[in-house]
Every structure is written in C-alpha cells, then in structure tokens.
Write a structure and sequence with these properties.
The complex is a heterodimer of chains A (499) and B (164).
Chain A lengths: L4 H8 L2 H19 L4 H13 L4 H26 L8 H12 L3 H34 L4 H17 L5 H14 L3 E2 L6 E2 L13 H19 L20 H5 L2 H16 L4 H16 L11 H12 L1 H12 L5 H12 L6 H6 L1 H24 L1 H5 L6 H20 L2 H19 L4 H24 L11 H29 L3
Antiparallel strand pairs in A: 1-2
Chain B lengths: L8 H24 L14 H23 L15 H20 L1 H15 L5 H22 L8 H8 L1
Helix pairs in contact in B: 1-2, 3-4, 4-5
The chains are: A mainly alpha (499), B mainly alpha (164).
Chain lengths: 499, 164
C-alpha cells in the first residue's frame, strides 16, 4: 500500500505540482467566495489551459479549484449570509448570527477548522476505501459494471426525486447526447445529420463550458449588485486564538467528516445534503441543541466539515469504478479520459504513483487553502466587492476563446453557445443540470457495458439477475427507490391517525 | 435569486418539448443511424438510444397531456425577474463576438465585446469601458497567442486589405 509513497511524495512536492496546487487553490477560493460563480465555473474556465499540462499537474490544478471552492464558500456565508457555494448556506445559519454578535472570527475559525478537518478525514477514508472497492471491482465483468453504473444513475435521479420527471429527462438527454457520433463498437454513424464535425461526438469540454461558463454567467448579468458594504473585518488575518474554540468540537468534526465522505461517495447526493445532514446530526447530538440557528461555532464547523469531505468522497467511485457522483467529478473524469487515463479498478493497480500523488495533492490543497484563508482573510473577503457583471463578461470572453483553443474549432464554440442557452434556461428554471452532465459522461460507459453484457447473455436481459453482484445491486437499488416512499407513507399515516 | 414558481406551465412546456424532440429522434433513427452492420439488434448501435428515447417519451407524456387537456388558463410566470432582456442582449453580443474573431480578429473583437457589454450593463466609467477591455485583450492575447500558441484564423477584413 505504501511502497509507491516515496515516488508519489517526490511528484507531489515537485515545484510544478506545488505551483499548480497553489494556483488551483487560490482560484478555487476566489471563485468559491464569489456568490454565483463557484468551483464548477472556475474549473470549466480553466479546463482549456490544462490540455497543455501533464495529466498529474492538470489534475492538481483542477482539484485545487474543486476543493478550494468549498473552503471559500463559507466566507461570504458567514460575513454576509450570502453563500459562495450552495452548500455553505447551512454554514450561514450559525455563522451570520455569530457575525452579528461581533464574533465573526470565531465563526470563521470554526468553519476553517471544519473545512480542514473534513477534508483530511475524507482523504484518509479515500485512501483505504478506494483500495478496498478497487479490489472488489477487479472481479467485475461487464454485467457487474453495468449494474453498478445503472445504480449510480438511479441514485442521481433519486437525488432529485422531488422533481423526478425533470431529473430523468435531463439524465436521459445526457445519455442520448453521448450516443451522437460514430459508434465505437460497430463504427456506425449516429444522429450526425450529415454534419462532419458531429462524427467525433459531442466534446464534454464545450458542453460543460457552455452550460456553466456561459449559462451561469448569463444568469449573473441579470443579478442585482450585492450589498457588500456590510463586510467589516478588524484583522487582516484569522484570529488564531479562536481556533482553540473550534477544536473543542472534535467529535462533531469526525462525525461530520465521515457523513460528508459517505454522502460524497453516493452518486447524486452532493455537498448540500452532506452539509445539511452533518449539521442536523451535530444538532441532534449536541449538549446545547437550542443554540443551533442562533449562533454556535459547532454548527459552522459541522456544516463545513460535511461539505468539504464531499470532494474526496466523490473520488472513491470515480477512481475505483469510473462512476462520477456529481458534475464536478464528471468534469474530472473528462480530464482523466482526455489524458488517456481510464478510471476503474485497474487504475489503482496500473497507476499507483499517480493515485498516491493525487491523495497527497488533495491533502496539500487542504493545508494551502487553510493557510491562504487564515493569512489573507480580509483581502479574500473583499473579493465579494468586485461587480458580478464585470466578472461575467470577462468569464464569457475567456470561456469562449478557451473553447476555441481546445480544438481550434468554431464548431465547438457553436456547441458551447447552444449549451449556454440550454444551461441558462435550465439554471433559471432550477432543473438539475448535474443530471445532464452525469448522463453525457456515463452514457458511453453504460452503453458499452450493456451491449457487452447482452452479447454474453445472447440478448436475454433477465440473465443479468442470475449473477450475484447485479442481483444484489438491483435489490439494493430497488430498496433505495422505494425506501423514501415507504417513509413518506408511514409519516402520512401517522399524521392522519386520531390523537 | 428570485423564488421560483414550481406550478408554472413553463416546466410542462419544457418537459413536453424534450418528449416531442425524443419522439422525433426516435422516428428519425431509421435514417440517421447507420444500421447496415449485420450484428443482431441487442449488439447494434440502436438498442441504447432506443431505450433512452422511449424512456424520455414515457416520462414526458403526463406533461403533454396536461398542456393539451388543461381546462384552466396556463400560468407562464416563472419568477419575479421577468424577461431576461440583459441576458438576451449580452448573448447576441457574444454571438457577434464569436463571428467577429473570424471577421476582425481576436483582439479587436474581444475589445468591442467587453467594452460594449460593460457599457450596456451600466458600467460607463472610462476605466471599465476602455481600460478593462484593454487589459482583457492583453491577457487573452498573452495566454492564448503568446503562451499556448493557439492558431487563430487570419481576420477576413485583414485579408481583404492585403489583397487590395
């Protein structure tokens, strides 16, 4: 397990990797602090620049943005009750009341310790769980892969079960879009409509850049200017004496980190759910549950530990099974495959140095993000004052040129423009855009495994259930689908019972 | 962001649109998917898209029925933000910007796009309408042309001048 560590250490601490990590983390914090931008926009805007980098450096840069974004999101949530990233909304429940009481430094210290602790716990879990899962997955054939991939897709849909139809339609749209182009198994052209550029299929980069880089920024130009005048920080840095207060809640920290990692591991749940459940669990097990919502550092710590554990948690199914659990890891999966690295159980065996470098890099990102925010707290907080319309226009220009630069193709830019309009409409209507991305990324894998499995079973789909793993996965997936409905049914029945 | 009206018929319209699109693609599959390969259907290129498109159609049927057979007036208000006038104008600027790269070149097109967009969005100080676009042009030129050495088409206008 540790035999490749010396090489990984050398790679992780190389100057180029450290520079990539610092730059990525810095960009991540900045985009995380800016409400409405977030790590997704940051990652897709930087994406075109990563093609000229070595795969491990590109991954470090993107991972820095991914993890740094969650760190930064807490700052405006605490200081202005405006979450930088959606999951930081829960941090604002206690963070903002603390700021109003003049204890902003205590809230920020708790959030930073929470983020750091959650991140570290999840990386340790990633280190051990990924290996276990990969060992199990080496025994997988196509039917098993299809079953697991299908279960992932079902979980993604179930995460938006409040609007099930929208979730299914977007996921299926993504799956269908993944079929456009030349079919790799039969070399047949599909849905190209005679357009030559479509034969290579829809590239994930222009689609992501369009959906988030253009779609999200079009939303920003409509947004009213934030009232950022209320930011008052007396110190340039974090008040390090307040860190001790946060360490009092170490049990909450561990619990929240574990909850966040597990929810990150399950496709579709995401950081908001992780943050919320960690917060609820901290409230339930706290000695002072009444203080929650009125301003307790424990609330900030729990919520931030929960959401910051998600990135490493999401890496577990991505690295071991090749199944991305959220839009951000779907983009990372795109980067892996573009660089000829195919996530799956063999990745951990074939690329042990890269994987160990990845773990170490994630650990370093947490250290850098903590130090950057602790040492430059006020300058970072002041970023909120930049007008969103300026950022929107600059991001649009950079995204558009970036899309062109990937393949020097105007067709890709046109794809991004269409995706931008679709992204704007879906984001404005609050449809789960993540399903679309997951569908596009998972589509080709699911199709390949389905057709391979059907070839093994000579077209008899029912033979899937004669193999133990697909059967177990199918039963578990079925239970996961009906479980929420059973709970709802029981709750409704209880409410209707006469007192 | 403004509160969203979950009961807005726009959601149903979108759902129906996706369903109709899926139906059209399913019908068109005969012609736009090459099925000359002798492999049986379960190994062929159509099985996966057919399953997906059928699922899309099934899930959109309730919305189509809702739109067609609803007796009360359809409610199209999505939120309190109204028609996205600014977003539409900026998007038109963006399209012009893309084709401007081919016509007048990266630098001039970027400058005009950023300058006009910022002016339109109400940022009318000299530093935002002139200096900021200039900085953006320099950064883009430095990143893409100087550092990444990305090839950009020779501007059409420039070619015209050269010919003359």
């Amino acid at each position: 397990m540790f035999e490749f560590m010396p090489e990984a250490l050398a790679a992780a601490f190389s100057i180029t990797n450290i520079l990539a990590l610092i730059s990525g983390t810095f960009i991540g914090i900045v985009v995380g602090i800016m409400p409405g931008i977030g790590p997704m926009v940051g990652m897709v805007v930087i994406l075109p620049f990563t093609f000229s980098l070595a795969p491990d450096i590109a991954l470090s840069l993107l991972l820095g943005i991914y993890c740094g974004g969650y760190f930064g999101g807490a700052v405006p949530a605490i200081l202005m009750r405006t979450p930088g990233v959606p999951s930081s909304l829960i941090t604002s429940f206690d963070g903002f009341p603390l700021t109003q009481q003049g204890k902003a430094q205590t809230a920020l210290s708790a959030a930073l310790v929470g983020s750091f602790g959650g991140g570290v716990i999840s990386i340790v879990m990633l280190f051990f769980l990924a290996r276990l899962l990969a060992l199990a997955a080496t025994k997988f054939g196509s039917p098993e892969y299809f079953a697991v991939g299908f279960a992932g897709v079902v979980l993604v849909v179930m995460s938006s079960r409040k609007h099930l139809v929208r979730g299914v339609l977007l996921l299926c749209s993504g799956l269908w879009l993944s079929t456009v182009g030349i079919d790799s198994l039969t070399i047949s052209s599909r849905y190209c409509f005679g357009i030559l550029s479509m034969q290579t299929g829809l590239n994930i980069v222009p689609v992501c850049l369009g959906l988030f880089g253009i779609g999200q920024t079009l939303l920003l130009v409509e947004r009213k200017i934030l009232k950022s005048g209320q930011i008052h920080l007396t110190r340039r840095t974090l008040d390090f004496t307040k860190l001790i207060v946060a360490f009092k809640y170490w049990k909450t920290l561990i619990k929240s980190g574990v909850i966040g990692t597990i929810l990150g591991l399950l496709p579709g749940f995401g950081s908001i759910m992780a943050s919320f459940l960690s917060y609820e669990e901290a409230k339930r097990s706290s000695e002072n549950p009444d203080e929650f919502g009125k301003g307790t550092p424990e609330g900030c710590l729990a919520s931030e530990a929960g959401n910051n554990a998600v990135p490493a948690g999401a890496m577990i199914p991505l690295l071991t099974l090749g199944i991305p659990g959220d839009a951000l890891s779907a983009v990372l999966m795109g980067i892996f495959t573009i660089n000829g690295i195919y996530p799956g159980p063999l990745l951990l065996i074939k690329e042990p140095v890269l994987i160990n470098t990845l773990y170490l890099s994630m650990m370093l990102i947490n250290v850098f993000a903590f130090l950057m925010l602790a040492l430059w707290l006020r300058p970072f907080a002041m970023i909120v004052k930049i007008k969103t319309s300026i950022l929107a226009i600059v991001i649009m220009a950079v995204s558009t040129i970036g899309i062109y630069a990937v393949n020097t193709s105007i067709f890709d830019v046109c794809v991004a423009l269409v995706a931008g309009v679709v992204g704007y409409i879906l984001l404005r209507m609050r449809w789960p855009v993540v399903n679309l991305i997951v569908g596009i990324v998972l589509g080709s894998i699911l199709e390949e495994k389905l057709r391979e499995s059907l070839s093994i079973f000579e077209g008899n789909f029912l033979l899937f259930f004669t193999r133990p793993i697909p059967l177990a996965v199918a039963i578990m997936t079925g239970l996961l689908i009906i479980f929420p409905f059973i709970i709802k049914f029981i709750k409704t029945k209880k409410n209707h019972q006469p007192a | 962001m403004a509160e969203i009206n979950e009961k807005s018929s726009l959601h149903d319209v979108c759902t129906a649109f996706i369903g109709i699109f899926a139906a059209l693609m399913l019908i068109a599959s005969r012609w736009v998917v090459d099925t000359t390969d002798p492999a049986p259907f379960y190994k062929g290129p159509l099985i996966f898209p057919v399953i997906i498109l059928c699922t899309m159609i099934i899930f959109s049927v309730p919305s189509i029925i809702k739109i067609l057979f609803r007796k009360d007036k359809l409610e199209y208000t999505l939120d309190q933000e109204g028609v996205p006038g600014k977003a539409i104008v900026i998007f038109v600027f963006l399209i012009i910007f893309v084709f401007g790269i081919v016509g007048i070149g990266l630098e001039l097109s970027t400058f005009i796009f950023t300058s006009f967009s910022l002016y339109f969005l109400g940022l009318r100080l000299l530093k935002t309408t002139f200096l900021l676009p200039l900085v953006t042009v320099f950064v883009l030129w430095f990143l893409f042309k100087f550092m990444l050495d990305v090839w950009f088409p020779t501007p059409y206008l420039f070619e015209l001048f050269m010919e003359q």
